[in-house]
């Protein structure tokens, strides 16, 4: 087949141009010897384009015997092409959560009959240990969801790594979102040394441990779910912490009176955190910071809600942002606000 022979020192520049112009045949391997590199051209290459290219490099097109390149699927959809039609493939949600060595999928109801095929494709593509299917939304005060095993090894306990931290968990018995990694990092950067912090809905301690990993702070990690309490204790042991994380199992309504006033309160329960705002405002120090989260379609309603509960105390907005999309037109909003 046709290819271009070029001296090695100019090969990388030529390769970039051929890729940009879509003239390099990726079905065959680029070859090289001691002095030259040989690049295969697509079968119906554009003669005018190639002439312009080779004139810049003073090379010629010749016939070479190239070896077939090994095909590597670019995404898990490539694994499904023989089993699922194009129309069906369009309906599969391409985004999925990876927690440690577990992949958790969302599959449209109309494709549920092919969930095993999809699960195997994801397993082959990601090379992870297990693939599960979301059978329900996050539910109840323990914030858990039902997961159905699809492929790999049926073992839901895993260790998720994030910014040098290890979180041990079972995603069917506790709440954890890998999509909040950036938000956790943002809050860590907000925290000052020696803060006293209460995380009202701490889960496995992802915010508290992230903070204590790099900041000398005291964080009370509160959650009503006994499984979350179990894992936060294990995660404290798994990580080297500069600060102190104090796990507390219980309803924040019932344990708050036993806790000191806080420099900062974290409320990452966007569905119902608004129901606990009065408790937070009453338990935060003068000049303390509230990291409050809510599902909303706009910023103003979130700010108004906090200001109404905080009144007559003055507030200062430090930051408000869209953390991630919840549904069309609705966002997971994060508000950092100082309560004077």
Structure description:
The protein is of the alpha/beta class. The protein is built from ten helices and 17 strands. It is elongated, with a radius of gyration of 27 Å. It starts with a strand and ends with a strand. The model has no long low-confidence stretch (mean pLDDT 91).
Series of H and E elements: EHEEHEHEEHEEEEHEHEHEHEHEHEE
Q: Treating each run of at least 4 consecutive H or I residues as one helix, how many helices?
A: 10
The CATH topology of the largest domain: Rossmann fold
DSSP helix fraction: 25-40%
CATH class placement of the largest domain: Alpha Beta
| Total tally of structural domains | 3
Terminus-to-terminus distance:
75 Å
What's the architecture of the largest domain in CATH terms? 3-Layer(aba) Sandwich
In total, the number of strands is 17
| Alpha-beta classification | alpha/beta
**In angstroms, what is the radius of gyration?**
27 Å
Report low-confidence residues grouped into runs of 5 or more: none
Largest sheet: 7 strands, mixed
